[in-house]
């Protein structure tokens, strides 16, 4: 039972972190607090729906979606860097676009939704409880995390260019994760295998993202020189 509770704590902490990422997108943008409550409520409803569907969805399909995480996150990394740079450029020109660009940081990708659904299924099977109750628990944690973190980030009084910087940082973090984590796993297992076609397929995305990041850094250096 101790292991089961450890699983629960781990899942809820993961949901808490995911909610804080969403809250950061909301808190550093210029959207109103009503929209933040609406977004948190949307996540709450999604969690309830996921909990109620745990007995009807094939887990293999979710695993297939989660297996595409490398490709999805490589695309997301490029989008985060590009949109983050766009947010900063517009703000420096006197235009606030954070009320639109925050969506990329605050809305979940398909892989994150699949992981959230798998979390609900694990909780249901571990404790043999009603899926709706699990969805309620996950939804409450999500809602509280989104709203409270958005409120705290808003209290910092940062400008929308902070949102752009966070998006660029997360995009770079995703890229480094895509490059380093598979290599680390191979080193740990000490089992060298041929490079998969999926890994080769994301190389153009990574190269493109590096060029975008290089241009952004060059512009930053030029502006401060």
TrEMBL record:
Transmembrane segments: 6-24, 36-59, 65-86, 102-127, 133-153, 165-185, 200-217
Name of the protein: Putative transporter
Top-rank lineage group of the source organism: Archaea
Pfam family, one: DUF2162
Key words of the record: Membrane, Transmembrane, Transmembrane helix
């Amino acid at each position: 039972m101790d292991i089961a509770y450890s699983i629960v704590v781990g899942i809820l902490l993961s949901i808490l972190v995911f909610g804080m990422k969403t809250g950061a997108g909301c808190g550093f943008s210029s959207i109103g607090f009503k929209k933040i409550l609406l977004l948190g409520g949307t996540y709450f409803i999604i969690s309830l729906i996921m909990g109620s569907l745990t007995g009807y969805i094939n887990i293999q399909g979710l695993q297939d979606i989660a297996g595409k995480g490398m490709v999805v996150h490589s695309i997301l990394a490029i989008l985060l860097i590009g949109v983050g740079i766009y947010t900063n450029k517009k703000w420096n020109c006197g235009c606030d676009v954070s009320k639109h660009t925050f969506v990329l940081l605050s809305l979940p990708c398909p892989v994150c939704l699949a992981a959230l659904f798998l979390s609900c299924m694990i909780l249901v099977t571990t404790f043999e409880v009603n899926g709706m109750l699990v969805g309620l628990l996950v939804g409450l944690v999500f809602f509280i995390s989104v709203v409270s973190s958005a409120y705290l980030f808003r209290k910092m009084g940062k400008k929308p260019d902070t949102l752009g910087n966070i998006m660029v940082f997360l995009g770079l973090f995703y890229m480094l994760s895509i490059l380093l984590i598979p290599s680390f796993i191979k080193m740990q297992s000490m089992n060298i295998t041929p490079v998969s076609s999926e890994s080769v397929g994301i190389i153009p995305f990574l190269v493109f993202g590096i060029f975008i990041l290089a241009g952004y850094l060059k512009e930053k250096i030029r502006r401060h020189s």
